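Q: Structure tokens for this one, please.
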Amino acid sequence: MPTDTLAAIALTRDLAADLDFGGVPTADAHDALRRVIKGGVATGTQLNAVAGVLISAGRLQRTVQQAARAAGSDATLLATVHLIVEAMAALIVPRKVIDEVQRCVEEEDGRVRDSASEEVRRTRARVVTLANRVRGVLRGYPGEVTEVNGRLALAVAKADAGSISKVGGVV
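A: Here is the predicted structure, written as tokens:
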């Protein structure tokens, strides 16, 4: 059996370490990193996934460190788990990244908060202003202003000779 597998078994069986990897959004985090490496922008959901992976890594690091302390002076047990203990000791979990993602991105839906930056706040305010202006223009036409798939639209009656001339074209 590989040495790292024996180390993980010793951590869980002999030192009662809970090495839980469940629920870690690694696929979304991987997609975020791949996108950013290519010069793209990660989505809020992807950023939450990165933060989730970092939080899980920090938790795993603390668990392994506690287990190593629990081994005390048992040289045989320490020799068995040393690979994982050393790997976890070398792990650097950037708490600032986690804190920034949690400050800027809604955990529930991955939406970037208005408070993330002044630029986001200004841009969102500008979008609202422009959407209201478009609504105002659309209200000047016959029909109901509505939103379809996130876009403003003008619901009009079935096209006939009278409605075409009121709208000024075919809708």
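A few notes: The mean pLDDT is 86. The longest strand covers residues 144-148.
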